[in-house]
Amino acid sequence: MKESLQPFVGKQVTEASGNAKFDKDPFLGQTLMEIRTFGKQTYLVFEKAAIRIHLLMFGSYSIDEQTKPDQSLRLALIFPVGGMYFYTCSVKAVGTEYLSEIDWEADVMSDRWDPSKAEKKLKANPEMMVCDALMNQDIFSGVGNIIKNEVLFRIGVQPESLVGNLPAQKRKELIAESRNYSFDFLEWKREFTLKKHWLVHTKSICPTCGQKLIKKQTGKGKRRSFYCEQDQELY
């Protein structure tokens, strides 16, 4: 989405509408300075304020034309070069000072990603299950349930393992693969081949040993986990 919206950077808003509950008039005439992402949140940064977009589970967007009915339209911003439309999602106006409070180094796909900071946060939570750690947006901003399941299979760790029990090497693999898989995810998403690359997520048979995979709600979040007891170790 960030890439699709880039042509609007540097352009002024001429119209703003939608059913998101904030005053849109202050954005009229403002220039879109940049687009930032933090995990699954996108920030449209203007001169005096920003708009945070989170597509949640069923949100979507379109460019240059409204493709869904008004009741689904959360926000429409019109520029001299076209428009952007956001549907069935969370839209909120935030002050520019809010952006300075975000730990951009926690975003697994950011150029500012700091693996040493992630490791420090993991060490501070030894009793946390690794499935919860990966889904913790303060540690791995941007990682979701699919990435969680695939990363843990890649490194051979069961989701209910405790962070404090992981050997140092496994902890480093957890951190590295959270970023690696996120970029793989994006590439496959662009190619419309994401599901073809899933090894365990929503699968029933382990691709390595052929054993039946465990499907279980794990961690405090009770999110679906798919894993192999044979090829993934419980620490």
Report on the architecture of this protein.
The protein has 235 residues and is of the alpha+beta class. It has helices spanning 2-5, 96-100, 115-123, 130-135, 145-155, 168-190, and strands spanning 15-17, 32-38, 41-46, 49-54, 60-63, 73-79, 82-87, 90-95, 214-218, 223-227. It has a 4-stranded antiparallel sheet with strand order 1-6-7-5, with no helix packed on it. It has a 4-stranded antiparallel sheet with strand order 2-3-4-8. Strands 9-10 form a two-stranded antiparallel ribbon. Helix 5 (145-155) crosses helix 6 (168-190). The longest helix is centred in the last third of the chain and has 23 residues, at 168-190. The mean pLDDT is 96.
Into which percentage range does the β-strand content fall? 15-25%
The count of β-strands is 10
**SSE sequence, one letter per element:** HEEEEEEEEHHHHHEE
Helix content: 10-25%
Lateral arrangement of strands in the main beta sheet: 1-6-7-5
- Determine the structural class based on helices, strands and strand pairing: alpha+beta
Number of helices: 6
- Measured between the Cα atoms of the first and last residue, the distance is 38 Å
Radius of gyration: 20 Å
Low-confidence stretches are none
Outline the biggest β-sheet. 4 strands, antiparallel
Task: Choose one word for the global shape.
Answer: elongated
Q: Kindly state the mean pLDDT as a whole number? A: 96
How are the SSEs ordered, and which strands pair?
Elements: H1 2-5, E1 15-17, E2 32-38, E3 41-46, E4 49-54, E5 60-63, E6 73-79, E7 82-87, E8 90-95, H2 96-100, H3 115-123, H4 130-135, H5 145-155, H6 168-190, E9 214-218, E10 223-227
Antiparallel strand pairs: 1-6, 2-3, 3-4, 4-8, 5-7, 6-7, 9-10
Helix pairs in contact: 3-6, 5-6
